[in-house]
Amino acid sequence: MGRITVSGKSVIFRRKDELIVIEPYGRDCFRCRSTRNGEVSPERWTLLPPAAEDDCIIEGDEKFVTMKNGILSVTLEAGNPWYGGVVTYYRKGQQILHTKFEGDYVNKYVHVEGDHYQVKVIFDANEGEHFYGLGQETEDAFDRKGSTCNLVHYNTKSTLPYLYSSLGYGFFWNNPSPGRCETTRNHTLWCADSAYQADYLIFAGERPADVMKIYCDLTGYAPVFPKWASGFWQCKLRYESQKELLEVAREYKQRGIPISAIVIDYFHWTQQGEWKFDPKYWPDPEGMCRELEEMGIKPIVSIWPTINPQSENFRTMSEENMLVRTENGQFGTFDFYGQQTFIDTMNPQTRSFVWERVKENYYDKGIKNFWLDEAEPEVHPQQFGHLRFYLGNGAQTALLYPYYYVKMFYEGLKKEGEEEIISLTRAAYPGSQKYGAAVWNGDIMSDWRALRQSVTSGLSMAMCGIPWWNSDIGGFLMGDTESEEFRELLVRWFQFGLFCPIMRLHGSRLRTKDQPEPNPGIIERSGGPNEIWRFGEENYKIIKGIIELRERLRPYIMEHMEEASKTGTPLMRPMFYEYYEDSKCYTLEDQYFFGPDILFAPIMSRGQTEREVYLPRGTWVSVIDRKVYEGEKEVTVRAELNQFIAFVKEGSEVLEAFV
């Protein structure tokens, strides 16, 4: 049958083949671990220690125990031999989670190897509940209710195993093993494919902002956002030489277009795994950086974590186990211009070794900001049990890779005395935000569907504690700059980019007929042109105006980025984040708040110039014509291609920026 005991503030349930331990983890928060092993593991992974004292009171006996901690409470019942160890959570007395009986044990364990199991935790479904989070992927699903999600990283998908519920609680699955989450009509299920134990935290608050603050107490807050990063970033695949890059930067300045950063993309290097400029095409990095800094433009350089035997660093790193290894077979895990493997970012020796190469070849030459590409990492095939990391087999630890990748650069830059640290990265894990991760949603298509999916991706990441986020404006793949459809898409995407935490133009555009041939001998050639004067004269005027508006919005952006670093509240906010008592706001996936005062409703279909917008309570001013609307109703708004649909809360000073 099993028996419940209490040790200090830990409630412990033991029965044949199962151990459950529930403890308070700061105020309004519980941590639950369960295992088939003899004891639970103290491993926290990226979880921080509790930030505040709990308020836990425990009452009961060996058959039934209640724990109260702030507005949360939990009961644990011993039950009978077939139905024991049942856990039920309550927020302010309302049941929010109840472990579900399916066959035998409430928590499922299937042996994998050694002391690791495939572990499942299953809860009953709540009618009318909405879920938000789980990171980003290319699908139209901001509300995750009624869906399933594989917990895995790959290009265009970044998993953060955390959900916010419309019932006012957060749930963090503290297992870096690949697995899955099901938030379907019949149950809510979390599964780790290979783990020592199930490990999750549940916490609650009065408002979404209160829950977000607890989540960031548990995983960390983004640092102070660099002021320069709030401006416009120019990027393309790819500038092939120092000469080409500087010509573009000079052209932006000559045209009087505000620009904060320009990006040096991949294959500017000598060899994958050498992390240095190819002197044939980048002969004077120091001089290049000086000129860019004089123009007020930050250079950002792409880093890949790939390496092959041709690299001067390969033998040392391989012999000293600083690379991701395979459990059986040779080094190759990614075929891209030869077989590559990846550096093992989980290994502190790797992080130190690679940073020293980066410091010597980039930082000391003037590069202080980095683009951490391939951050998942992009292994093929995705058989994580075949990979060996410093922290263990990939089936148990693979989701941690991007966390330690961005940590490597944050700590290296900190060591050099840098205070404003931001790294563009293609994947994240809970806690990445505290190391300055600016995540983007990967190599998406240049089409309308990808634009719609980018809106839901940005909102999902915001609800996962990642306030620094962006997408490639215009999408990444197959954009035809001479196509009228693409030019329309680009303008609408720029309007979305205006109301994103980071505004960055990027993409692998189709090459044009009049484009010169690439430099002889170059490994990876450039795509088509991607500067804002390359998309037609009318588009140029519209886009230039959007960038100038971004400049005027930067004080507002910085004010609320500061809020994110202190409280976790993101700049890009779902409607319910501000109006959590309005049930309508939990159903809106195609409009959102940019800070507390701007409501943005993007147009995301070809040829569309009109759409419905829901205005919550209050008084709202349209930025198009200054028309005033009363809230708690839907309105129809028209916006030509040179206009966008946004409303400002009446009385807000930010309205003055929309001249």
- Tally of helical segments: 11
Major sheet size, sense and barrel closure: 8 strands, antiparallel
Average predicted confidence as pLDDT: 96
Instruction: Characterize the overall form.
Output: globular
| Low-confidence residue ranges | none
Distance between the termini: 71 Å
- Whole-number radius of gyration? 25 Å
Describe this structure in words.
With 659 residues, the protein is α+β, with helices and mostly antiparallel strands. 21% of the residues lie in helices and 28% in strands. An eight-stranded antiparallel β-sheet has the order 1-2-3-4-18-15-14-12. Helix 2 links the parallel strand 19 (232-234) and strand 20 (261-264). The radius of gyration is 25 Å and the shape is globular. The protein starts with a strand and ends in a 10-residue tail after the last strand.
Summarize the structure.
It is built from 11 helices and 42 strands. The protein is α+β, with helices and mostly antiparallel strands. The relative contact order is 0.10.
